[in-house]
Amino acid sequence: MYEVEVKVRADHERVRERLEALGATHLGTVRQVDTYFDAPDRDFAETDEALRIRREDPGAGSATARVTYKGPLVDAVSKTREEAEAVVADAEATTAVLEGLGFEPAATVRKERDRFEVGEVLVTLDEVEGLGEFVEVETEAAEDVEAERDRVFGVLEDLGLDPGEGIRTSYLGLLLGADRDDRQ
Amino acid sequence: MYEVEVKVRADHERVRERLEALGATHLGTVRQVDTYFDAPDRDFAETDEALRIRREDPGAGSATARVTYKGPLVDAVSKTREEAEAVVADAEATTAVLEGLGFEPAATVRKERDRFEVGEVLVTLDEVEGLGEFVEVETEAAEDVEAERDRVFGVLEDLGLDPGEGIRTSYLGLLLGADRDDRQ
Fold it and tell me: Which single residue of A11, A178, B33, B167 has CA 20 to 30 Å from B76?
């Protein structure tokens, strides 16, 4: 399964109006704290991979954690890449296992995510600490990546956003001030 | 926290009689399937480390999975080593994350474990597929490793077993026929 995703800087107020006009479904808001790790054997910035532990809190004390591996880009424009993700019971214990293996926490990204669904396309309004407001439009493709990319571009245009302004640099990369980094 | 542990080959029937005489508490029986991984950047057999995913089924369909990192030996006689362990929701998804990072499943150990407690010492009767019957006596030490080792040796003697016959080779190592390997 591939993730097809485009991210742009966008004023949330205007996008919310468009989402309402499109009849989007509001999925909910969560707070996410992402810790990215460096590898002992290679430079993830160079190999275009990422290892992340995400703590997600949708409120009411029901925090969850997931560990995710992101592989190198398959399609550069849409940020399509392979991904493997596992739910874990305890972010701290999982960090200890990764540290034993030689992975080291390198940086942390904190954000509020507000999620909507337009058809089968996911639209996410991100307020990132230290960076500001972004919109991500995303879908999953089992095979026909090109068709999914067209759908994602279509939704961006419906929201008054320009697919040509897609930012390939990840929040992590933006926070670190690196423009060669395109992990999410 | 360190794990202090001694393992010997032993006929289970005799040991069960001794456990009963000692008033040991029976904790229960589980089936464990352990998958060990090779690392992309180093030879765990040489560095004396291990990465394992353990699927544990105590019956009644309540299977769980844990991922564990074991560090090099701190004390050779008692097999004391540092350990980090995390509960995961899905062994297959966790395997996919590890494979993304470059770790590869190398070998699998299957066994039935019958657990008892004598005082604060854990006594485990292992029936290992392809290897036969073993007894492990184990405790955890925050600081005074030597005192914990003496307790472990004492329980072995109470069970009619000889601490001098401790096997440092792991089940994995025994299965692979390697005697330099001493991971559990």
Answer: B33
Q: What is the pLDDT of residue B41?
A: 92
CA distance B179 to chain A (A): 23
Q: What mean pLDDT value characterizes chain A?
A: 89
The pTM score is: 0.73
Q: Determine contact: A68 vs chain B, CB below 8 A.
A: yes
B147-181 pLDDT per residue, tens: 888 999 999 999 999 999 999 888 988 998 854 44
Q: How far is B3 from chain A (nearest CA, A)?
A: 15
Q: What is the pLDDT of residue B87?
A: 94
Contact between B93 and A71 using a beta-carbon 8 Å cutoff:
no
CA atoms of B38 and B94, how far apart (whole Å): 15
Q: Kindly identify which residue of chain B lies nearest to residue A67, measuring between CA atoms.
A: B97
β-bridge mates for residue A177, sequence order: none
Testing the interface with B: which of A3, A43, A88, A92 to mutate, by most B Cβ within 10 A? Answer: A88
| Residues of A identified as active-site | 36
